[in-house]
Amino acid sequence: MYVVSVINYKGGVGKTTMTANLGAELANRGMKVLLIDLDPQASLTFSFYEPDDWRDRLRDERTVKRWYDGLRGDDPAASLGELVVTPGPANAHLKGAGRLDLIASHLQLVDIDLALARGVADGDEYDAELFRVRGSLAEGLHDATLDPYDLVLIDCPPNFNVVTQSAIIASDHLLIPAKADYLSTLGIDYLHGNVRELVDRYNADSRRFARIRRHHKVAPGIAGVVFTMIQLMAQRPIAAHQGYMDQVRALGVPVFPTALRENVTLFAANTPRGVPVVLRDRITNPAVRDELRQITTEFLAHLQPEGAVA
Ligand SMILES: Nc1ncnc2c1ncn2[C@@H]1O[C@H](COP(=O)(O)OP(=O)(O)OP(=O)(O)O)[C@@H](O)[C@H]1O
Ligand SMILES: [Mg+2]
């Protein structure tokens, strides 16, 4: 099982859109995919479930909030496996034996985040608690009921708080959607540095607090930056976008060869409800779907350099 976090501090760069479509396309190719929505905005959740449906069927029992509540000891702990749901419309569109499941988010996940970060005293006790929480998602994913999944894709919120950190620590790879603009390119370098610092700190803590958790070194790699919302002119990115794409390549961070073009019409509407663009049969601009499929192929090639899965 691979665990991949989709991450960027910057908001609105297409993380959630990429998570939903990548997950959907991989499931359509026969993989068993589990999506985890770690963003209290719950955009990924609401791209598969109507808000009313979420409130009636998921809010109280089936969201990732229960997992993080369990860490604080407020409520009896739920295992991650107990929280999984299967979005109907998306799965009805899958061709083969693949599967697209979800652990939904909760609008109050933000409160937990703040409480976790400040809920313990300074010093050793604080460091130990932070270490425990940072490693908690990795530990939760070692749940036998999750063994059948080939891939876990985690949609992170646009920040670097402790819930996001737990996703990074749980990950084998990080995927970074980005827009090709000035602020996004600054952010990528910064993100890269902060991930490295977090991982070094976690691995050092792992030796220091070996009594809490068996030591195992984490080393998430950068799967790459995937550019989104690119404007094209004569089938090529406009010069302003191309310039920033080149700058990011020059940072030495891997960049996906294929970028996703901007298409407000296709992505603004969640119709038909709950079915990501890549799975829809009739769309106004099939080139968008082709790009999503191509990005998926490039992503798979990164996970499995031998190309074991088609
Ligand atoms: N290629 C695209 N072309 C046009 N609009 C897009 C594209 N990709 C995503 N969008 C739209 O841009 C908005 C932001 O996308 P999305 O929610 O995926 O970003 P995000 O990085 O997850 O945001 P946040 O940081 O708030 O979680 C959404 O309204 C989405 O529909
Ligand atoms: Mg999002």
Concise structural overview:
The protein has 310 residues and is α/β, with parallel strands linked by helices. The chain has helices at residues 15-28, 43-48, 51-58, 64-72, 88-92, 109-118, 124-134, 136-140, 162-170, 182-208, 239-250, 264-268, 286-303; strands at 2-6, 32-37, 99-103, 151-155, 173-178, 221-227, 232-233, 236-237.
What would the keywords be for this entry?
310 residues; alpha/beta; Rossmann fold; 6-stranded parallel β-sheet; two-stranded antiparallel sheet; 13 helices; globular; binds adenosine-5'-triphosphate; binds magnesium ion
Helical content class: 40-55%
Strand content: 5-15%
How much is the radius of gyration in Å?
A: 19 Å
> Could you list the spans in which at least 5 consecutive residues all have pLDDT below 50?
none
The best one-word shape is: globular
Alpha plus pi helix count: 13
Give the tally of β-strands.
8
Query: Largest sheet, order of strands side by side?
Result: 3-2-4-1-5-6
Biggest β-sheet, characterized?
Answer: 6 strands, parallel
Pfam families: AAA_31 (PF13614)
Protein name: Chromosome partitioning protein
InterPro entries: AAA_dom (IPR025669), DNA_Partitioning_ATPase (IPR050678), P-loop_NTPase (IPR027417)
Domain AAA: 2-204
